[in-house]
Task: inverse folding
């Protein structure tokens, strides 16, 4: 590969998934920061790649089949593409592959959205709505329980360390902000600490550290950009 993958990125759990995979694969990439608090996700050039105005997204300038660059949005689709194109962390055999893809989809459709809402109502919402806080904190707790039971008799969520683990791990990382206590989930805690210690993961989490900000520091302008979105504007 002579041209690195373009990674449209901001240091959030969905962004971390992709830096973790690229670091594990040792695939060269360059970061293109998408400052979601400033509205970079609405720039016309970015929307051509990511019409849902969300990062992460990638452009692979040298796909193995040749031809035009391939652009991809949605972190799960990006992980599947990178694993298939650059190897590792996704088995080829149908049964083993299905194990991984179901846990990847579980993260995409369950853990990510629910934990995201827990973060929102616990930390970003200015009105502290008890029903919403309890609803998403409890749902996170249930999902952590699903992972904990799954990890009772295995090291990783689906066979060997895979893109399913890499997708879930960044969403467990801010567990305290989701109102969770890992000591309630001993198998999940072991899994979490094992992955946390991997050199590629340590490196991946450092990427874009300088851009990180805390919910408490969010400006009114950023709040409007992130939480004032409708189809009309
Ligand atoms: N399902 C998408 C979710 C991506 C997503 O929600 N990204 C957030 C940051 S974690 C974002 O770009 N937000 C910008 C916005 O809300 O306008 C994925 O997994 O890629």
Result:
């Amino acid at each position: 590969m002579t041209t690195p993958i373009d990674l449209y990125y901001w240091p959030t759990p969905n962004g971390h998934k992709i830096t973790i995979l690229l670091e594990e694969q040792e695939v060269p990439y360059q970061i293109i920061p998408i400052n979601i608090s400033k509205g970079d996700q609405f720039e016309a050039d970015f929307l051509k790649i990511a019409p849902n105005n969300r990062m992460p997204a990638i452009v692979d300038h040298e796909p193995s089949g040749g031809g035009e660059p391939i652009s991809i949005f949605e972190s799960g689709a990006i992980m599947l593409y990178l694993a298939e194109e650059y190897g590792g962390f996704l088995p080829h055999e149908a049964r083993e592959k299905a194990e991984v893809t179901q846990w990847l989809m579980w993260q995409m459709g369950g853990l990510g959205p629910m934990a995201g809402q827990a973060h929102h109502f616990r930390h970003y919402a200015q009105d502290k709505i008890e029903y919403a806080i309890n609803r998403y904190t409890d749902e996170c707790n249930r999902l952590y329980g699903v992972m904990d039971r799954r990890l009772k008799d295995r090291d990783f969520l689906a066979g060997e360390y895979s893109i399913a683990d890499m997708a879930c791990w960044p969403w467990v990382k801010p567990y305290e902000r989701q109102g969770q206590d890992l000591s309630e989930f001993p198998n999940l805690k072991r899994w979490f600490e094992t992955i946390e210690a991997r050199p590629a993961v340590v490196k991946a989490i450092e990427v874009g550290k300088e851009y990180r900000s805390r919910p408490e520091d969010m400006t009114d302008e950023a709040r409007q950009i992130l939480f004032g979105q409708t189809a009309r504007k």
About this structure: Residues 12, 14, 36, 41, 53-56, 74-75, 108, 226 surround glutathione (CB under 6 Å).
